[in-house]
Amino acid sequence: MKRGWDVSLLCRALADPVRRAALDRLAQKPHCVRELAREFPQSRAAISQHLKVLLDAGLVSVQPQGGRRLYCADPKGLAWLQSYIANMSERAGAGSAPPAWAARMSDAA
């Protein structure tokens, strides 16, 4: 993400279960839109829109390779998000026990 990190964009990107699943697959290995779309019931156009949201949020990067564009999870975006949540958790006084919202988030995944 070139203009700086935007928490609202990151949260919006992660709010959709299809985008979270796509990001999980992209964290395992790069995919082009066509390859990724085969793994979902949504159309290729819908998956492409989901990738754009993830790209705009800085969670995904894209590299041209021949005639295709390979998408992969962007470690910098994920590290920034992890740091943001860790700092928020620290400010909230979370000690060794995870905060209550962490259990709800893992249930939602």
What does this structure look like?
The chain starts with 6 loop residues before the first helix and ends with a helix. The protein has 109 residues and is mostly helical. The protein is built from six helices and two strands, in the order H-H-H-H-E-E-H-H. It has one domain: Arc Repressor Mutant, subunit A (Orthogonal Bundle), CATH 1.10.10.10.
What is the helix fraction of residues, given as a range? 55-70%
Individual helix count: 6
Taking the sheet with the most strands, its summary is: 2 strands, antiparallel
**CATH homologous superfamily grouping:** Winged helix-like DNA-binding domain superfamily/Winged helix DNA-binding domain
Provide the residue-averaged pLDDT: 86
**Poorly predicted spans:** none
**End-to-end Cα distance:** 24 Å
Structural class: mainly alpha
The CATH architecture designation is Orthogonal Bundle
- DSSP E strands, number: 2
CATH class: Mainly Alpha
User: What strand order characterises the main sheet?
Assistant: 1-2
Number of structurally distinct domains: 1
Fill in the CATH topology.
Arc Repressor Mutant, subunit A
